[in-house]
Amino acid sequence: MNPDAVIRAEQLRKHYGDVAAVDGISFEVPPGESFGLLGPNGAGKSTTMKMIGGVSQRSSGKLSIMGLDPDVNGPEVRAHLGVVPQQDNLDEELKVRENLIVYGRYFGLPLSYLRPKADELLEFAQLTDKAKSRVDALSGGMKRRLTIARSLINEPKILLLDEPTTGLDPQARHILWDRLFRLKEQGVTLILTTHYMDEAEQLCDRLIVVDKGRIMAEGSPASLIREHSTREVLELRFGSERNATIGAELQGVGERLETLPDRVLIYADDGETALEQVSARGLHPLTSLVRRSSLEDVFLRLTGRSLVD
């Protein structure tokens, strides 16, 4: 156990009737770490975030936030948290700067603090020139940056981010990543859920993969790739009908073979060597691609490829 952990969960459970949304998960988060929760829809990620945020009581197990029990000391815990919900819930009737100041008043913060703090956060979020604009005139990326700026008004020690870049274009996502990197450099602990595997690789020092309320794997993105996948992946396309039958002819190439409707994946430490072996067997794919193994390969291997409603 890490005595310095700012979040500690032990056999954490949350039940809704007979359904176990979170089924006995345990993890620790040290201060200043960027910690991710990955999993398909319904895996228990958002439920875990709600319990950390003190807005949903656990059914059993232990949960400590900065040494406090959120079920007992909810207001005290929330005073040190910043929350970025999956959907922006900004006040569309207020101007950009007013959103920050009004939100800060909910924490009982004085205007003498809030006025300069709002200007500081607008600069951090690259929204200074939009300070007097109405929120409904902002782009999606600007609204997301404002939501993050608002979550920082109370100078939180822990920032909870639920799907922080969903719906944003690549440029807006990278700007947001930069802002989150800066927060981490300032010592803020980040807890985030995301469906974007590249985002998890970029932002997370460590993460857990959750499925059906249980932890399937835990570690850094690089260590999870090493443990659950190969160094490279060879993607082959033979045509939709041929893909389904080519597997038998590819046995023995690479370490593992996966047949999908649109392509065949060969997991190997050396993708080019695997491709040479395919050619040596007289097999000629319509397209071939050698790429490095990614966190998405790990995620899909651990949680499956079928859709979850």
From TrEMBL:
Keywords: Antibiotic resistance, ATP-binding, Cell membrane, Membrane, Nucleotide-binding, Translocase, Transport. It comes from the Bacteria. GO terms for cellular component: plasma membrane. It is a peripheral membrane protein. SMART domains: AAA. Residues 7-237 form the ABC transporter domain. GO terms for molecular function: ATP binding; ATP hydrolysis activity. The keyword Translocase applies. It is found in: Cell membrane. InterPro entries: AAA+_ATPase (IPR003593), ABC_transporter-like_ATP-bd (IPR003439), ABC_transporter-like_CS (IPR017871), ABC_transporter_ATP-binding (IPR050763), P-loop_NTPase (IPR027417). Pfam families: ABC_tran (PF00005). GO terms for biological process: response to antibiotic. Belongs to the ABC transporter superfamily. This is Lipooligosaccharide transport system ATP-binding protein. It comes from Arthrobacter cupressi.
